[in-house]
Design brief:
By secondary structure, the protein is mainly alpha-helical. The protein has one domain. Helix content is about 75%, strand content about 0%. The chain is built from 7 helices and no strands.
Amino acid sequence: MTAPEVAEPTAERTRRDWRDTLRDATDLALLGFALVLAALPVLTAAPALATASAAVHDRLTLGGWPDLRTTLARFGRALPAGLAASAVGAAVAVALGVDLVALATGRVPGGGAALAGTAVVTAALAGYAGLTVVAIGRTGGRGWRDAARAAARTGLARPGTWAAAGGVCAVAGLLGILVTPVAVPILAGYALAALHAVAARRPVVRMESP
């Protein structure tokens, strides 16, 4: 007497193919264009980043992008505190950029050692900013101070994640100089997704509840 056959499971595992990859790439490109357009006034850069980061977080955790109403509401809520964050971020970026250009062109003394040191500091600050953007995306785009604290805790507890985020920002900045201007928004969307992917491998420390 033969043993009864074990029935094979009938449920098919959902598989991603090239169409899903192409769809994600297109969505990130569109997100990048929306991010850059919203950040054009400069002072709206931080709210735009927070809103875009929240959208990427939704895509990664919920499997879909937020609707337009949710996105606009998040942007509106992020504006008050985001204006100050934009001003601080722009001031730091300009100061570091001026220092790098001055050192690279020999306008100030210091040579290669000073240039390398400034570049490392710039990458470290960029990585910290990237982790902050990821952290605020996990709260729907609100709470810059709490996000900054969470990013600091992550950087101290997991230096590898901090370094990886800095590497993502450095590569994105270099590519932003090399590619044509029309491709910069696409690069912005991909860089934001890369930051979330880096943080997902070693999650950003959660914010403390008030």
